[in-house]
Amino acid sequence: MSVQVQEHLYSSFLNGRTSDVTLQVRATTWSANYRLHRVVLIQAGFFASLWTSDFAEATTFHPEVTIVFDDTNITRAVEAFEVCISRLYGGGPPLHVSPHLIPSTSHPLTPQFPFRSSFDSTTPSGHHPATPRFLLSLLATSVYLSLPTVAAQALTLVLSTMGPSTVLSYLDFALGKPITAPDPRLNEPEAAVGLEKVAQIVQDDMVSLSGTSLYSTISEDPRRFSHYGAISDKIGEAAACWLARWAPDMLALEERKAGVSASSIRRRAKSDATLPNFSNIPTIWDRGGLSVPWICALISSDTLFVSDERGRYDFARAVVELRRRKGLVEDEEVAWKTLFEDGIYYCNMSMEDVIFISKDSSPTTKLPFVSIAVLQASHWQSSILRQHITARPVSPAADLRPSPAPTPGSPVQREKELGIMLTTAEIRARLASSDPSLDANGPYYLVPTDLSQRVGDNGSSVHPPTSNSSMISMDELFTPSFATSSSGPSSPSASRPTGLGRASIGEANFFGIQSRRYTAQGCVAADPDGTARWTLQPPFRFGVEFWDAELLPEKARLYSQTVWCGGSLFNAYVQVVRKKAVQIGIYLHRQSTMEIPGASGYRGAGESSTSSSSSAPRERLSSLLSSPASPTHNRGPSLPTNIASPSSYSPSIRSQRESPMRSPTPVSISSSLPNSIGSTISSSSLRPAGPTMVTLPPAPPAAPYRDSRPAVAAYFTISCASATGASQTRFSSAPDVFSVSQSWGWKSSSLRTEEYIEVGAEGTEIPTKVGNRAKEVSLRACVVLGLV
């Protein structure tokens, strides 16, 4: 279309000239007539179907067409409809999103939060304010009218503005709830900017339509017209991922807002001059925020960012007491009882923690949070695992040298296993024979296969409006957002994802964050092929956090805290690989008891950090996730070597019961190494002089007993949250053999390196100006580890 023709059509639209059809648009809260042109409207799938298929309007000329919107999300925003129509004419106002709504890698909880309101923003002249409510209505309207380019833009903006002030409204939209009324603080225009004279408002119809049977039906079941399939699921997944990452941070602020004294939840240290404006803190965990089922699903989720099971208990306790301050609700109390019984794995706690919990009572109800029977059952379960581990004979001639990784399920690997797994076929056979030794109720936990997938989206994977945007289809928008692939060539037996392996199935499993527990019958129903493997032993869950990963030299390791699991020590570490394109690798490591790595922590505001780095603007690249349908990653072992890698330690999430210890003088990576090792590193492999990572003394965990076997078999999943929290990359591994000081993990494009390290157009690293970063600027991951 030439510029002159486009300008002529747009002028005709603005002035209602030479129209050949009048759209009589009717909704619950507004009704208007629009004088438009069929040849333009037919670009939208809705109107194309209306005038080119078997509808009466297609066979007979009707100068007036009445459209009744039965979607409650469209009825609340006349301006969204007008923007959609204006886009068909090649015009309409540009949209302005408040910068206070957009999170970034440097401000992952959005700029100024929680010190400034997200409503403090000035809209440039001629722009339409793209408020969260407007974006949702624009998305609903464009999907209804089948305008893929507009829908893609709206979806991208929704996902890219996922933050503290929007997460609940976006989650409600994904759950099918109607969009709320406009917020009076935003002063949203009643009509689209620049299109105020396009509509002929019909006042009488607003009253007459409000009592029709159609809208009575909608009020009884608003979700009937308010769910948008995979598009809703994409938003729901992003919201669920965000909540799982930022749960402790938001709860700490809500407690402060409610006047609750400092609890065990980790907090950010702020001076009196920078105290948050608590009126800006949204309600998420308190009443008026998340529903009780969602709270229970999040707290019991494998991807909730807490230190360990004791940290999960402390978090659950704080949430429950926060809500109890406003009175007891019977339905809630029933849910809390189930949460504390099933959502926390007490068998993976220390005896000290279990004893503490047995004596811990609610200050509101004066009753214990967990019954003695539940704690005793967990102790029995941990004792059974200990018996399996310590009773197995150790080969006297065990070869401690690293050997090639055994094939999963091979005799070599089975020799390392504890014999506590069951296949679905075995469970089915024992159910059929009424085997009394089979635990029919479970719960059973799925042993994963080699798999990687992405859940959620920050907007970068949605087709943005570009010069080729006319090629976007509604089918592409309705493609599920998560991507899956089997592991790389180092795992020849990797299998493609099945229904059990798929992370998100929408609202049914809370958009992918629900932890799955099965009965024996449930295992059989979920796996008709009978090939999946299960265990009655709950996995060990812990969270890790890494700061300043971009300061790592080539192949150096940045460690998490070390944890004890079933007689062995484990930790996670990250590495930066700068060959060809910059990548981040993340690994699970079986740690030697003789070499606990030193601790690296957050460089607080008191630490000076300067860099001679370039101030070039950051460019977000999608090339590192080149195909959303098939992310690539390279999975393999990291074998022990004679010379330790340059390493530091990240305390990640310290125990809430301990005050963080801090080295009086920050120590750089190179200075923390023996001289003989430091001298083996070429100067080109080290980072330029500037900020260094803070190190703390090693902190070995308490070890009730030791697994003397030189090699153990374990499955694991590592869920890496994106920098802003709106997505997760999940890596799952079938049982692998871990020798002492051996690692398994991934170097992956799915880690979206550009979110943590600035990269240029060719995939090369851009030196970053680190400065005094907030504590939230970090790489967070949740690890699920199961010994088998």
Automatic annotation (TrEMBL):
Coiled coil: none annotated. Residues 605-632, 645-654, 668-685 have a biased composition (Low complexity). PROSITE patterns: BTB (PS50097). Gene3D superfamilies: Potassium Channel Kv1.1, Chain A. Transmembrane segments: none annotated. Residues 633-644 have a biased composition (Polar residues). Signal peptide: none annotated. Residues 19-91 form the BTB domain. Residues 395-415, 597-702 are annotated as: Disordered. This is BTB domain-containing protein. The lineage of its organism: Eukaryota, Fungi, Dikarya, Basidiomycota, Agaricomycotina.
